[in-house]
Fold:
Amino acid sequence: MPQKKGRGTLRVVDGKLDILVNINGKAVAMKVAPGEYLLDALRREGYKGVKKGCDGGDCGTCTILLDDKPALSCMMFAAQAHGRRVTTIEGLGTPNQPHPIQQAFADVGAVQCGFCIPGMVLVTKALLDEDPDPDEGAVRRALDGNLCRCTGYVKQVEGALLAARRLRKPQGAKK
Amino acid sequence: MKNNIRQFCFPASVSEAVGLMNRLKSKALIVAGGTRLARAIPPAVDTVVDISDLPLKHIKADKAWLRIGALCTIDEMEKSPLLARWACGVIAKTAGFGSNSFSRGMGTMGGNVVRAHPYNNLPPLFLALDAVVVGTDGRREKVLPFAELLKPEGMREFGSRYLLTEVRVPARTKKWAAASERLALTKSDWESYASCVVVVDRKGGVCRGGAIAVSAVIPRAARMARAEALLAGQPATEAIARKAAAAVVAELEELAAGSAAKAYAREMAGVLVRRALCEAFQA
Structure:
């Protein structure tokens, strides 16, 4: 896996670029078109939790974590992820073992159609990694790039705050 | 999407990046935060130069200057303890204007000023703070007053020959009173109707001088010279804030040359300037 510094030069061969990306902890080699966006490359590789919404940087459904920071995968070339660490929603939990943030969102009823939820969960993950005890204002500000057409955002904010409380408790403590 | 990209380069040093820029000229597209450019690639471009690995993420101060690296994200500026203390926190506050969490986290200071759209929040801020921009062509440093960067020739030079490395704000502004205001449809809306930044050098309730920069309502951010002249030597009161605001509206009317377009926004620019001045007077 190349280090972030000194990622060198990628050249197009037979219309494709060979990139190497750490996705959810695994080194993944991908062939991508030179103008292909990371969103499309990830979905083609099977990471369908990365949603294609507006495809223009407005809705936040294509959120990934790039080196642990939220990023819009529709606004960057796939090649820009070369040598970097990408986390998608598939890297957080599974249906049987959801991540505490996913569980909290489910518990408060934050999920309606669910299309925006992967992005919101990832943004919440980045927020709580940086600030384990955010107030409601901080949560709302962190989620201000993720649009939801079903809800009034109240439940997602509740979910994020619940997840923060649960993650702050020591392991084994009563919820 | 259709494009003619043949390679992606990830320079690890400023000199390597400038070398690529100068060698490839219009064939190179420089991206950092990449929030917009990835969606608008000119057909001449065959090389994407991703400068996000360059060591230009500093926010630091010395005796002469506050220095903000070109690759600092808006988020880093907004959360910087140093910027929160500088000029009543106006830099940190203004950096967070008109953007959502992704723009703040991905967008860079350099992109915000080099691609200086009238809605961008940082150009009026740096204009009001008498900042200078610093770039390099690989051999020597070029320092330019911020207002010069906003002119077409400044934009051409810093988009091709010189790589923007940092913006410097004079240390004398650290204790100045300052405030910023903007009017937009929503808090996170990038497009605003009008925005302003005011900076006041004040002693004992009297303005020794001040700067008023307005943007969004005009094609590029500009200082309002006549309104600024009204402040010098005057008591820091709401009455003088009203006079200065009226002068701003008059100056904007002249710039609009009688056009009825944006008349409402020009009026609102005056309101914002008055509010910002009153806030700065009380700071």
Remarks:
- Chain B has twelve helices and twelve strands.
